[in-house]
Amino acid sequence: MDNKNIPSDEISLKDLLSKAQEWIAYLLSQWKIILCAGIIGAGIGLTYAILKKPVYTATLSFALEDDKSASGGLGGALGLASSFGLDLGGSGGGIFTGSNLTELFKSRTMVEKTLMTPVTVNGKVISLAEMYIQNNEWRDKWSNNPKFKNLQFLPESNRKYFTRAHDSILGIIYQNLSKSSLSVAQKDKKIAIISMDVSSNNELFSFYFCEALAKQVGKFYVETKSKKARMNMEILEHQVDSIRSELNGAITGVAVANDNTFNLNPALNVRRAPSARRQVDVQANTAILTELVKQSELAKVTLRKETPLIQIIDRPILPLLKQSFGKAKGIVIGCFLGFFLGTIFLVFKRLIALLM
To answer: Where are the bilayer-spanning segments (predicted)?
Structure first.
Protein backbone atom coordinates (compact mmCIF):
# COMPACT_ATOMS: atom_id res chain seq x y z
CA MET A 1 0.00 0.00 0.00
CA ASP A 2 2.80 2.43 0.89
CA ASN A 3 4.60 1.72 -2.40
CA LYS A 4 1.44 2.57 -4.35
CA ASN A 5 0.92 5.87 -2.52
CA ILE A 6 4.41 7.15 -3.19
CA PRO A 7 4.00 7.45 -7.01
CA SER A 8 0.61 9.11 -6.45
CA ASP A 9 2.24 11.77 -4.21
CA GLU A 10 5.00 12.35 -6.70
CA ILE A 11 2.50 12.80 -9.53
CA SER A 12 0.45 15.34 -7.54
CA LEU A 13 3.59 17.29 -6.71
CA LYS A 14 4.56 17.34 -10.36
CA ASP A 15 1.08 18.52 -11.26
CA LEU A 16 1.33 21.29 -8.65
CA LEU A 17 4.67 22.47 -10.01
CA SER A 18 3.34 22.30 -13.54
CA LYS A 19 0.30 24.40 -12.62
CA ALA A 20 2.51 26.93 -10.87
CA GLN A 21 4.70 27.25 -13.95
CA GLU A 22 1.62 27.73 -16.10
CA TRP A 23 0.35 30.54 -13.85
CA ILE A 24 3.76 32.21 -13.75
CA ALA A 25 4.05 31.99 -17.50
CA TYR A 26 0.55 33.43 -17.86
CA LEU A 27 1.29 36.38 -15.55
CA LEU A 28 4.59 37.05 -17.34
CA SER A 29 2.77 37.11 -20.62
CA GLN A 30 0.50 39.80 -19.20
CA TRP A 31 3.38 41.94 -17.94
CA LYS A 32 2.17 45.00 -19.83
CA ILE A 33 -1.13 45.04 -17.95
CA ILE A 34 0.62 44.55 -14.61
CA LEU A 35 3.11 47.29 -15.47
CA CYS A 36 0.32 49.68 -16.44
CA ALA A 37 -1.50 48.89 -13.19
CA GLY A 38 1.68 49.65 -11.25
CA ILE A 39 2.19 52.96 -13.08
CA ILE A 40 -1.43 53.95 -12.47
CA GLY A 41 -1.09 53.02 -8.79
CA ALA A 42 2.11 55.07 -8.50
CA GLY A 43 0.34 58.05 -10.07
CA ILE A 44 -2.56 57.72 -7.65
CA GLY A 45 -0.15 57.45 -4.71
CA LEU A 46 1.74 60.57 -5.84
CA THR A 47 -1.52 62.50 -6.26
CA TYR A 48 -2.66 61.46 -2.79
CA ALA A 49 0.67 62.55 -1.29
CA ILE A 50 0.36 65.96 -2.96
CA LEU A 51 -3.27 66.53 -1.92
CA LYS A 52 -2.88 65.08 1.59
CA LYS A 53 -2.47 67.94 4.05
CA PRO A 54 0.20 67.54 6.74
CA VAL A 55 -0.90 66.90 10.31
CA TYR A 56 0.46 69.10 13.10
CA THR A 57 0.48 67.76 16.65
CA ALA A 58 0.65 69.94 19.75
CA THR A 59 1.69 68.10 22.91
CA LEU A 60 1.25 69.28 26.48
CA SER A 61 2.25 67.26 29.53
CA PHE A 62 1.30 67.85 33.15
CA ALA A 63 1.51 66.20 36.54
CA LEU A 64 -1.37 65.99 38.97
CA GLU A 65 -0.62 67.05 42.52
CA ASP A 66 -0.78 64.16 44.97
CA ASP A 67 -4.01 64.68 46.92
CA LYS A 68 -2.96 63.29 50.27
CA SER A 69 -4.34 64.35 53.58
CA ALA A 70 -2.62 67.15 55.43
CA SER A 71 0.27 66.21 57.63
CA GLY A 72 2.63 67.78 60.13
CA GLY A 73 1.83 71.27 61.35
CA LEU A 74 -1.02 71.81 58.92
CA GLY A 75 -2.67 68.58 59.94
CA GLY A 76 -2.51 69.62 63.60
CA ALA A 77 -3.94 73.01 62.75
CA LEU A 78 -6.81 71.45 60.82
CA GLY A 79 -7.47 69.14 63.75
CA LEU A 80 -7.62 72.14 66.10
CA ALA A 81 -10.05 73.87 63.74
CA SER A 82 -12.23 70.79 63.67
CA SER A 83 -12.39 70.79 67.46
CA PHE A 84 -14.06 74.20 67.24
CA GLY A 85 -16.62 72.86 64.77
CA LEU A 86 -15.01 74.42 61.70
CA ASP A 87 -14.41 72.40 58.53
CA LEU A 88 -11.66 74.13 56.54
CA GLY A 89 -11.89 71.78 53.59
CA GLY A 90 -8.53 70.11 53.99
CA SER A 91 -9.04 67.83 50.99
CA GLY A 92 -10.65 68.39 47.64
CA GLY A 93 -11.67 64.76 47.30
CA GLY A 94 -10.94 62.31 44.53
CA ILE A 95 -13.71 63.20 42.10
CA PHE A 96 -11.25 64.17 39.34
CA THR A 97 -8.29 61.89 39.82
CA GLY A 98 -6.67 59.43 37.44
CA SER A 99 -8.86 58.39 34.53
CA ASN A 100 -11.62 60.79 35.63
CA LEU A 101 -9.30 63.70 34.91
CA THR A 102 -8.42 62.43 31.42
CA GLU A 103 -12.12 62.07 30.64
CA LEU A 104 -12.69 65.62 31.87
CA PHE A 105 -10.40 66.85 29.09
CA LYS A 106 -12.55 65.00 26.55
CA SER A 107 -15.90 66.11 27.94
CA ARG A 108 -18.18 68.10 25.64
CA THR A 109 -18.57 70.91 28.16
CA MET A 110 -14.81 71.53 28.37
CA VAL A 111 -14.32 71.24 24.60
CA GLU A 112 -17.19 73.61 23.80
CA LYS A 113 -16.02 76.20 26.33
CA THR A 114 -12.55 75.95 24.81
CA LEU A 115 -13.98 76.48 21.31
CA MET A 116 -15.35 79.85 22.49
CA THR A 117 -11.84 81.02 23.44
CA PRO A 118 -10.78 84.15 21.50
CA VAL A 119 -7.67 83.91 19.29
CA THR A 120 -6.06 86.32 16.86
CA VAL A 121 -5.84 85.10 13.25
CA ASN A 122 -4.62 87.40 10.48
CA GLY A 123 -5.09 90.41 12.75
CA LYS A 124 -8.72 89.54 13.55
CA VAL A 125 -10.05 88.22 16.85
CA ILE A 126 -12.23 85.15 16.34
CA SER A 127 -13.21 82.10 18.36
CA LEU A 128 -11.55 78.70 18.00
CA ALA A 129 -14.87 77.35 16.72
CA GLU A 130 -14.86 79.93 13.91
CA MET A 131 -11.22 79.09 13.18
CA TYR A 132 -12.11 75.40 12.86
CA ILE A 133 -14.97 76.24 10.50
CA GLN A 134 -12.68 78.35 8.31
CA ASN A 135 -9.98 75.66 8.24
CA ASN A 136 -12.49 73.12 6.95
CA GLU A 137 -14.07 75.62 4.50
CA TRP A 138 -17.55 75.02 5.84
CA ARG A 139 -18.60 78.59 5.07
CA ASP A 140 -18.41 77.88 1.34
CA LYS A 141 -20.68 74.86 1.75
CA TRP A 142 -23.18 76.93 3.75
CA SER A 143 -23.40 79.76 1.24
CA ASN A 144 -26.65 78.38 -0.22
CA ASN A 145 -28.08 77.19 3.08
CA PRO A 146 -30.02 79.95 4.89
CA LYS A 147 -30.04 77.90 8.08
CA PHE A 148 -26.27 78.07 8.48
CA LYS A 149 -25.31 80.96 6.20
CA ASN A 150 -25.40 83.65 8.89
CA LEU A 151 -24.41 81.38 11.78
CA GLN A 152 -21.70 82.97 13.93
CA PHE A 153 -19.62 81.77 16.88
CA LEU A 154 -18.39 84.93 18.55
CA PRO A 155 -15.62 84.76 21.18
CA GLU A 156 -16.80 84.27 24.77
CA SER A 157 -20.40 83.70 23.61
CA ASN A 158 -22.91 82.72 26.27
CA ARG A 159 -23.91 79.11 25.75
CA LYS A 160 -27.52 79.63 26.81
CA TYR A 161 -28.22 81.89 23.80
CA PHE A 162 -27.21 79.27 21.23
CA THR A 163 -29.83 77.95 18.84
CA ARG A 164 -30.40 74.37 17.75
CA ALA A 165 -28.26 75.06 14.66
CA HIS A 166 -25.39 76.25 16.89
CA ASP A 167 -25.69 73.09 18.98
CA SER A 168 -25.63 70.83 15.93
CA ILE A 169 -22.48 72.46 14.52
CA LEU A 170 -20.73 72.36 17.90
CA GLY A 171 -21.74 68.72 18.24
CA ILE A 172 -20.13 67.85 14.90
CA ILE A 173 -16.95 69.74 15.81
CA TYR A 174 -16.83 67.99 19.18
CA GLN A 175 -17.26 64.56 17.58
CA ASN A 176 -14.50 65.26 15.06
CA LEU A 177 -12.09 66.52 17.71
CA SER A 178 -12.78 63.80 20.28
CA LYS A 179 -12.51 60.94 17.78
CA SER A 180 -9.47 61.86 15.72
CA SER A 181 -7.80 65.02 17.03
CA LEU A 182 -7.74 64.87 20.83
CA SER A 183 -5.82 62.30 22.83
CA VAL A 184 -5.28 62.39 26.61
CA ALA A 185 -3.53 59.49 28.29
CA GLN A 186 -0.97 58.47 30.86
CA LYS A 187 1.97 57.31 28.76
CA ASP A 188 3.40 55.03 31.43
CA LYS A 189 1.54 53.59 34.41
CA LYS A 190 4.69 53.90 36.49
CA ILE A 191 4.97 57.64 35.81
CA ALA A 192 2.29 60.02 37.09
CA ILE A 193 2.57 62.33 34.07
CA ILE A 194 -0.35 62.79 31.70
CA SER A 195 0.12 63.93 28.11
CA MET A 196 -2.41 65.64 25.87
CA ASP A 197 -2.04 65.62 22.08
CA VAL A 198 -4.06 67.80 19.70
CA SER A 199 -3.72 67.06 15.99
CA SER A 200 -5.11 68.97 13.02
CA ASN A 201 -4.23 70.17 9.55
CA ASN A 202 -3.71 73.71 10.86
CA GLU A 203 -0.62 74.30 12.99
CA LEU A 204 -1.99 77.36 14.80
CA PHE A 205 -5.31 75.67 15.60
CA SER A 206 -3.50 72.71 17.20
CA PHE A 207 -1.33 75.09 19.20
CA TYR A 208 -4.12 77.42 20.35
CA PHE A 209 -6.62 74.64 21.14
CA CYS A 210 -4.08 72.65 23.17
CA GLU A 211 -3.18 75.68 25.30
CA ALA A 212 -6.79 76.84 25.69
CA LEU A 213 -8.12 73.38 26.66
CA ALA A 214 -5.43 72.95 29.31
CA LYS A 215 -6.24 76.38 30.74
CA GLN A 216 -10.00 75.76 30.70
CA VAL A 217 -9.76 72.35 32.38
CA GLY A 218 -7.19 73.62 34.88
CA LYS A 219 -9.47 76.51 35.88
CA PHE A 220 -12.50 74.25 36.27
CA TYR A 221 -10.48 71.63 38.13
CA VAL A 222 -9.00 74.11 40.60
CA GLU A 223 -12.36 75.79 41.26
CA THR A 224 -14.06 72.44 41.83
CA LYS A 225 -11.39 70.96 44.07
CA SER A 226 -10.96 74.13 46.17
CA LYS A 227 -14.63 75.13 46.26
CA LYS A 228 -15.21 73.92 49.82
CA ALA A 229 -12.06 75.53 51.18
CA ARG A 230 -12.83 78.79 49.36
CA MET A 231 -16.37 78.94 50.76
CA ASN A 232 -15.10 78.39 54.30
CA MET A 233 -12.46 81.08 53.87
CA GLU A 234 -15.03 83.59 52.59
CA ILE A 235 -17.35 82.85 55.53
CA LEU A 236 -14.53 83.30 58.03
CA GLU A 237 -13.40 86.54 56.40
CA HIS A 238 -16.96 87.86 56.58
CA GLN A 239 -17.15 86.92 60.26
CA VAL A 240 -13.79 88.57 60.95
CA ASP A 241 -14.98 91.80 59.33
CA SER A 242 -18.22 91.71 61.34
CA ILE A 243 -16.51 91.10 64.66
CA ARG A 244 -13.88 93.75 63.91
CA SER A 245 -16.66 96.24 63.23
CA GLU A 246 -18.34 95.30 66.52
CA LEU A 247 -15.03 95.62 68.36
CA ASN A 248 -14.39 99.07 66.93
CA GLY A 249 -17.89 100.11 67.97
CA ALA A 250 -17.33 98.74 71.49
CA ILE A 251 -14.00 100.58 71.83
CA THR A 252 -15.68 103.80 70.74
CA GLY A 253 -18.50 103.14 73.22
CA VAL A 254 -16.00 102.75 76.07
CA ALA A 255 -14.44 106.08 75.20
CA VAL A 256 -17.86 107.78 75.06
CA ALA A 257 -18.93 106.23 78.36
CA ASN A 258 -15.69 107.34 80.04
CA ASP A 259 -16.18 110.86 78.73
CA ASN A 260 -19.70 110.92 80.13
CA THR A 261 -18.51 109.77 83.57
CA PHE A 262 -15.42 112.00 83.84
CA ASN A 263 -14.99 113.38 87.44
CA LEU A 264 -18.12 111.47 88.48
CA ASN A 265 -19.13 111.64 92.12
CA PRO A 266 -18.02 108.34 93.78
CA ALA A 267 -21.48 108.12 95.27
CA LEU A 268 -22.87 107.72 91.72
CA ASN A 269 -20.86 104.65 90.63
CA VAL A 270 -23.98 103.23 89.02
CA ARG A 271 -23.36 105.71 86.23
CA ARG A 272 -20.17 103.78 85.42
CA ALA A 273 -22.18 100.67 84.41
CA PRO A 274 -22.37 101.54 80.67
CA SER A 275 -18.58 101.92 80.54
CA ALA A 276 -18.10 98.56 82.29
CA ARG A 277 -20.50 96.82 79.92
CA ARG A 278 -18.67 98.29 76.95
CA GLN A 279 -15.37 97.02 78.31
CA VAL A 280 -16.84 93.53 78.63
CA ASP A 281 -17.94 93.76 74.99
CA VAL A 282 -14.44 94.83 74.00
CA GLN A 283 -12.85 91.89 75.82
CA ALA A 284 -15.36 89.37 74.39
CA ASN A 285 -15.04 90.69 70.84
CA THR A 286 -11.25 90.73 71.16
CA ALA A 287 -11.20 87.06 72.15
CA ILE A 288 -13.62 86.10 69.36
CA LEU A 289 -11.70 88.14 66.78
CA THR A 290 -8.39 86.56 67.80
CA GLU A 291 -9.80 83.06 67.32
CA LEU A 292 -11.49 83.93 64.04
CA VAL A 293 -8.30 85.47 62.66
CA LYS A 294 -6.46 82.23 63.48
CA GLN A 295 -9.11 80.16 61.73
CA SER A 296 -9.15 82.55 58.77
CA GLU A 297 -5.40 82.21 58.34
CA LEU A 298 -5.71 78.43 58.54
CA ALA A 299 -8.38 78.57 55.84
CA LYS A 300 -6.05 80.61 53.63
CA VAL A 301 -3.28 78.07 54.14
CA THR A 302 -5.69 75.28 53.21
CA LEU A 303 -6.80 77.14 50.09
CA ARG A 304 -3.20 77.69 49.02
CA LYS A 305 -2.60 73.96 49.52
CA GLU A 306 -5.47 73.19 47.16
CA THR A 307 -4.14 75.53 44.45
CA PRO A 308 -2.54 74.89 42.00
CA LEU A 309 -3.54 71.29 41.45
CA ILE A 310 -2.22 70.80 37.91
CA GLN A 311 1.47 71.40 37.25
CA ILE A 312 2.28 72.00 33.59
CA ILE A 313 5.58 70.35 32.63
CA ASP A 314 5.89 70.85 28.86
CA ARG A 315 3.89 73.21 26.67
CA PRO A 316 3.59 73.07 22.88
CA ILE A 317 6.26 75.11 21.11
CA LEU A 318 6.11 76.36 17.53
CA PRO A 319 6.94 74.88 15.07
CA LEU A 320 4.91 71.84 15.98
CA LEU A 321 5.66 68.25 15.07
CA LYS A 322 4.69 67.78 11.42
CA GLN A 323 3.61 64.47 9.93
CA SER A 324 3.21 64.42 6.16
CA PHE A 325 2.67 61.69 3.60
CA GLY A 326 5.87 61.81 1.50
CA LYS A 327 5.78 61.70 -2.29
CA ALA A 328 8.29 58.84 -2.48
CA LYS A 329 6.24 56.88 0.04
CA GLY A 330 3.08 57.50 -1.98
CA ILE A 331 4.73 56.33 -5.22
CA VAL A 332 6.12 53.14 -3.65
CA ILE A 333 2.90 52.17 -1.87
CA GLY A 334 0.76 53.08 -4.88
CA CYS A 335 3.00 51.12 -7.26
CA PHE A 336 2.92 48.05 -5.01
CA LEU A 337 -0.87 48.18 -4.67
CA GLY A 338 -1.16 48.62 -8.44
CA PHE A 339 0.96 45.53 -9.10
CA PHE A 340 -0.96 43.56 -6.49
CA LEU A 341 -4.43 44.54 -7.70
CA GLY A 342 -3.42 44.03 -11.33
CA THR A 343 -2.21 40.53 -10.53
CA ILE A 344 -5.39 39.70 -8.61
CA PHE A 345 -7.48 40.94 -11.53
CA LEU A 346 -5.64 38.71 -14.02
CA VAL A 347 -5.90 35.68 -11.73
CA PHE A 348 -9.66 36.06 -11.32
CA LYS A 349 -10.07 36.72 -15.03
CA ARG A 350 -8.33 33.43 -15.94
CA LEU A 351 -10.18 31.45 -13.28
CA ILE A 352 -13.51 32.67 -14.65
CA ALA A 353 -12.39 31.73 -18.18
CA LEU A 354 -11.37 28.22 -17.03
CA LEU A 355 -14.66 27.66 -15.23
CA MET A 356 -16.67 28.70 -18.24
So the answer is: 23-51, 330-348
